[in-house]
């Protein structure tokens, strides 16, 4: 039984270390967390959500701009 518990503890420790490693990788990818030496998991998730939300808003804005530019381009081509 002690061996089983030790094995389970080792597996759980490896799982936690893997998660912590992924959290740190995510933190390093975020421009707004570059200067934090050891942000909390909550901070990492919070900033990730903000980053993704901002990226989606920018994407929507750029898609709209492209649509408008294509429309303008068509109008200009008609004038030729």
From TrEMBL:
Keywords for the protein's UniProt record, in alphabetical order: Activator, Coiled coil, DNA-binding, Nucleus, Transcription, Transcription regulation
Limits of the BHLH domain: 3-55
GO MF term list: DNA binding; DNA-binding transcription factor activity; protein dimerization activity
Coiled coil: 52-79
A GO biological-process term: positive regulation of transcription by RNA polymerase II
Superkingdom, natural source: Eukaryota
Pfam families given in the database record: HLH (PF00010)
GO cellular component, one term: RNA polymerase II transcription regulator complex
Protein name: BHLH domain-containing protein
The organism of origin for this protein: Hesseltinella vesiculosa
Organism lineage: Eukaryota, Fungi, Fungi incertae sedis, Mucoromycota, Mucoromycotina
């Amino acid at each position: 039984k002690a061996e089983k518990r030790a094995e389970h503890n080792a597996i759980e420790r490896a799982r936690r270390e893997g998660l912590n490693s992924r959290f740190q990788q995510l933190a390093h990818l975020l421009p707004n967390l570059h200067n934090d030496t050891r942000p909390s998991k909550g901070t990492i998730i919070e900033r990730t959500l903000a980053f993704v939300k901002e990226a989606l808003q920018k994407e929507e804005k750029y898609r709209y701009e492209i649509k408008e530019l294509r429309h303008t381009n068509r109008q200009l081509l008609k004038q030729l």
